[in-house]
Amino acid sequence: MELDFLIKYLLNERGEDSSYVDSLSLEEKEKLYRGLVNIREPKEISNEYLKAEDKYLKSKLINVTASSSIKCLDGTNIAFWLGDITKLKVDAIVNAGNSGGTGCYLPNHNCIDNQINTFAGVRLRLACNEIMKKLRFNLETGKAIISKGYNLPCKYVIETVGPIFEGILNNKIKEELSLCYINSLKLAVKNNIRSIAFPCISTGVFGFPKKDASIIAINTVKEFLKDNDKIDKVIFSLYSKEDLDIYESNFK
């Protein structure tokens, strides 16, 4: 079983006992696997591991939604979709990451960065690590980088860093959030990406007020699309019904 092999590999490379793995339930194994992937530093890994990881993660690709099945709002190239962005078959998804650029290292943390890096597989972190070396491991707020999607149904993952809200909604923080969308869209155009999905950047652990963030996101994307016909569809992938209601209300 691929999952058992993956867990034992990750434990063994840490010098930890793996003899108990066979006795765990499937739920316990999945949680342990995810936690081990989350904390693993970007370093060399065997082809045997990567083949097993590909097979396991591909088997988890169920209930995938194709971007072609998501309808745009009348007269626009913009769509709203309530669902898991890691299950979206689209040219590119955007990851709301951190300044380190290599993903969330907290085991089983419930952030979009953690989910994307888990289900893409370890190669996403390895690829981002190579890019971040050139940036001295500091991805500035509003900037973006791009890599392949690996085991995700999307072709590419664009990483961007949203601003951290500290209680003051000033022009600087609004501009920083807007730049996340602009720079991600510019990377999409540069890489011939025709469809792209955004999460609600900065509205999770970074604390940006959802209503204000949605207005900035919608207006920024609208303005970008006015002057650019290279993008066929921009999907706002919304995590909750509350998010969907906010975006629909503010779009009007």
What does this structure look like?
The chain is of the alpha/beta class. It contains 8 helices and 8 strands. It has helices at 2-13, 26-39, 47-59, 112-120, 122-134, 171-190, 210-226, 241-251; strands spanning 65-66, 78-82, 88-89, 92-97, 144-148, 156-161, 195-198, 233-238. The strands form 2 sheets. It has a 6-stranded mixed β-sheet, with helices on both faces. It has a two-stranded parallel ribbon with strand order 1-3. Strand 5 (144-148) and strand 6 form a beta hairpin. Helix 1 packs across helix 2 (26-39) and helix 6 (171-190) crosses helix 7 (210-226). It is globular, with a radius of gyration of 19 Å. The model has no long low-confidence stretch (mean pLDDT 97).
Summary of the model, kept short:
With 252 residues, the protein is α/β, with parallel strands linked by helices. 43% of the residues lie in helices and 14% in strands.
Secondary-structure element order, as H and E? HHHEEEEHHEEHEHEH
- Strand segment count: 8
Q: What is the arithmetic mean of pLDDT?
A: 97
Unreliable parts: none
The largest β sheet comes out as: 6 strands, mixed
Walk across the major sheet and give the strand order: 2-8-7-4-6-5
Strand content: 5-15%
> Share of helix among residues?
40-55%
Structural class by secondary-structure content = alpha/beta
How far apart are the first and last residues' alpha carbons, in Å? Answer: 50 Å
Task: Determine Rg (CA atoms, Å).
Answer: 19 Å
- Give me the number of helical elements: 8
Shape call: globular
